[in-house]
Amino acid sequence: MRFSSFANMIGHFAERTPDAPALRYEEGGEARTMSFSQLAEAVARRTGELRREGKTCLGVFADGSMPCVVEIFAAVGAGMQVVLLDESVPTPLLRGLIPYTDVDKLWGDRELCDELSTSLTRGVRDGGGKMLFFTSGTTERSKAVVLTEQSLCASAYNGATLLPLYPEDTLLCMLPIAHVFGFVCGVLWGLSCGACVALGRGARHYMDDCAFFRPTAISLVPMLLGFLLKQNAFNDELRLMLIGAGDCPEALINAAKAHGVRVCFGYGLTETSSGVALSIGDDPYAMTVCPDDTITLAPDGEILIRGRTCMMKGYYKCPEDTNIALAGGALHTGDLGRFDEKERLFIVGRKKDMLVLPDGTKVFLPEAEAELGKLLGGGDFALALKDDRVTLAIHGDERSDAAIFDAIAPYQETRPIGQRVAGLSRQREPLPRTATGKIKRWELNTRL
């Protein structure tokens, strides 16, 4: 069913199936359940409290807990702008992101909120209904994508139309809800179908959350799928798995299918409020375009997306970047695709110069390599992926490995752990380049 707001979504089921489970979570070592009527009451109560406080922009360190979900829904209901923050981001970066997005109130870990309280601003004038999700790339200042509760609800409807859940289902959310894939496909997908959403307990419980919550459906990124398969962590009730936010090797998909689970793959972006195409047939790479979206291919194969309900409002305070991304009324994704004879979409590569890590985050290479070049004093080097780790391929530098890592320490300190340089690859020959000096990345990858 299509909903126009979070309150509308929760209220619909609170009225029709008030006692049905909406959220399941851990408290005191035991699984607790919050019904749709209880969720509606908790959100309404907190909405009133936030309105009385008079703040306008809430920064949420989204830990995925039940109070966090209630806080997000309530803040939007109170007419606040909500900024989803990741507490794993280095504090110096957070000090810049908070004033950039006009946050005047923080929610989350008390110690971290207190530490960042001096970064708070006077808030915003017109933030009602807006939710800001940061792009997953590593840039000098990550861009915030402006979405709305309407676009996020529409995205949940879009996906559920192709891949429905049912009231008897339990969807396990193990993904960080600070990212749009986790928020939409880990929370809204389930609630919009009247299903129960089980809120995962974080990385420490990856191995036992399936046994604890007994889900029938789960959304994952490829790296987490690989870990859970290795640990044999899936429960017998699990019937449906949605994979997204990065390339997924066929071996992982086949291993998941061997457990008797239906595996579907999703393609989407933060700018489109999550998924725009889903695989619903036997081939997990052959994706059907979601009903509210239109996808065409540029002459060079770039995927262009038009969407009447799910498209972003733009990049926060970045009108030039917004105009470039939405040139001609379509989102220029930088991804390359093709259609088969059944009009199913296949992703075949990337036009943008970036590394996509197994957890779905991105490293924008021109910016990253420019910063590393300053620290290294130039030289013949490039970033690449080797065994799913960010690797510095370097030629002709006689310094020891330790000395190189010392030189790039300022770069490392401003990056999340998974996006830091994790290894060196000493190259005997100069790095392969085009006539204009650009790295031939596909050729470099064959050398690693």
Give a summary of the structure in a few sentences.
The chain is of the alpha/beta class and 448 residues long. The chain has helices at residues 6-16, 36-53, 66-77, 91-100, 110-115, 149-162, 180-192, 209-213, 222-230, 250-257, 319-325, 365-376, 401-407, 409-413, 441-447; strands at residues 21-27, 30-35, 57-61, 81-85, 105-107, 130-134, 144-148, 170-173, 196-199, 217-220, 240-243, 262-269, 274-278, 288-289, 293-297, 302-307, 314-315, 331-339, 345-350, 354-356, 362-364, 380-386, 389-395, 423-427. The mean pLDDT is 91.
Summarize the structure in words:
- Strand 1 (about 20-25) and strand 2 (about 30-35) form a beta hairpin.
- The protein is globular and about 70 Å long.
- About 30% of the residues lie in helices and about 25% in strands.
- The strands form 5 sheets. Strands 2-1-9-8-10-11-12-13-14 form a 9-stranded mixed beta sheet.
- The chain is built from 15 helices and 24 strands.
- By secondary structure, the chain is of the alpha/beta class.
**How much strand content do the residues show?**
25-35%
Oligomer: single chain
Q: Mind telling me the C-alpha Rg?
A: 22 Å
User: Structural class, judged by helices and strands?
Assistant: alpha/beta
Average pLDDT across residues? 91
How far do the termini sit from each other?
Answer: 49 Å
Please provide the count of β strands: 24
Please work out how many helical segments DSSP would assign.
15
**Model regions low in confidence, pLDDT < 50 over at least 5 residues:** none
> How does the major sheet shape up?
9 strands, mixed
Helix content: 25-40%
Trace the largest sheet across and list its strands. 2-1-9-8-10-11-12-13-14
Cα shape: globular
